[in-house]
Amino acid sequence: MKWFNAPIRIVGWPTLLLVLSFAFVAIFGSVVSPYDPAAQNLMQAMQPFSPEHWLGTDNLGRDTLSRLIAGAQTTLIGVTSILLLAGTVGMILGTLAGYFGGWLDEIVMRLCDFGFSVPSLFVALAIVGVFGPSYGNMILALAIAWVPIYARLTRGVVAAAASQPYIESLRVLGASPARIIFRHLIPVALGQVLVYASADAGLLALAIANLSFLGLGVQPPQAEWGQMLVSAMPYIQEAPRLVILPGLALTILVVGFNLLGERIALAKNPRPMARRKLSLRRAIFKQEMSA
Amino acid sequence: MSKPLLSIVDLKTHFRDSRTGADIRACDGVTLDINAGEIVGLVGESGCGKSTLGRTIVGLERARSGQIRFRGEEVLALRGSRGAATRRKIQYIFQDPLSSLSPRQTIGEAIDEALVINGEGNRSARRARIAELLEAVSLPAQLTDRYPREMSGGQRQRVCIARALAADPDVLVCDEPVSSLDVSIRAQIMNLFLKLRDDLGMACLLIAHDLAIVRLAAQRVYVMYLGKIMEQGTSAELYGHPAHPYTQALLSAVPLTNPVQELARRRILLSGDVPSPMNPPSGCRFRSRCPVAQPLCETFPPAAALSASHVAHCHFAGECDLASIKANAFSAPHLVHVQG
Question: pTM for the whole thing?
């Protein structure tokens, strides 16, 4: 069980349990879900907590627990695909910019500046506005909006590593740029990107819920927390649980991802500097949240 | 003498200052020869451009103009795989061995990668070669699984040398190879360079600010100041009869082991800072700090050959001897401080 001890020591039981249980629900959602999340039963509408429906039913008689589980699936698949897309494209652009420098660096970084000057959510809004609201378009839009973050992160790490004597000595030995990039620079950048991504996942989960809340992301009848929130709005007086439950699920997931990211960042860099960086990142996070 | 193995002709490497756009003339017209199996020293103060020269030779900096001729080929003009194959024969040793080894590779992997880059495809042949290379630098073969951080500075520098040897080079450009090492380890590494020269016929450009280290190993020495060569000669000529005022000042700062000589040693302290390489003095580069500078020095100094190998770039080469000049006998006493 040695392979299992290291992550526990780094991340701690509670955080790991939190994130893993969400992942479990997302992966085995269709198995553990008691009802079809889209099945309507108007005879059973607006039921409170009961043995048949543990978390009650909504205005169309759909089982809330099943819909929360399906929502977890939607959110986590969305977050994962966005991170994969944005991370891959961002790392490719950032590595090229950081290693080759010059005009390529200028172009990529000015595009990033453009991306940063507009809040990510607005960029996503614009893209969804052009291509029309759907789950796939939302993922594409958020991925594009998130690329600059990863491009700049990678560019910084790669540019710093590329001027190290060990990269220079590889150049003197005659190593091709491809060898230097793929065998030496990408692994360094990947570590940093993964640390950042683990904390960024929470922000993305929020962004997905935001877009769906605005009706620009996940479309009914597919279940998604943000979309559940908005469809429960008219009933906030008579059945507050319909609003509270998806909000709570989202909050717990975001907190879980943030704890995960923080713990990994701290474990990688136990020096005081890391703590200062961390508080800086928290401040940026708060700023993004309020934007 | 036969044709030199590596000859550098009027090499210029300039950097553009990003704020002012002015040229920083780090290396400004250097001519230098290295013969096969010869250790050549290159000495000078910090910032005189000696490292830039070394980095330009191995292609880490782009030369503005000039020639690098290696075994009759013009290296700067070579392109593609042929250029890479030729350049590979000139290897570089960095000052800090820890940062010149990847922290993610064991030393076995690092040397292995150098062999792969050099085109050795056979795994077992590479393994045998790694053992040979480690032996060549006097490291035990069981160190292959160590990471650089688990080794001493001297061991790391040996690994760097072994990795450079993996490319089967003819010339090693060594940029301050021992200045980050303990004094007790320095002699070992210097002896290793001597051994490589004797066993493999390895030529070396030894870049250093430590004059004693260079004297120990080099047959010929070049003295560089502000991007230009001031004086060149065999070790015996240069250390015995320095002809350029700058060389004399530099040598006067070296402590002597003989206590009688050491007591008699007079240090020539140069006043002022090295001028900016963005705006070097006209004529002789050293004239702004030279204690014996004359109006004539505003013109470019000729190369005064004192013997076939000994050349000083000074209008008064060999005529002045700063060490014997008393402070009060000087026309400009504020320029020189002679300490008894």
Answer: 0.80
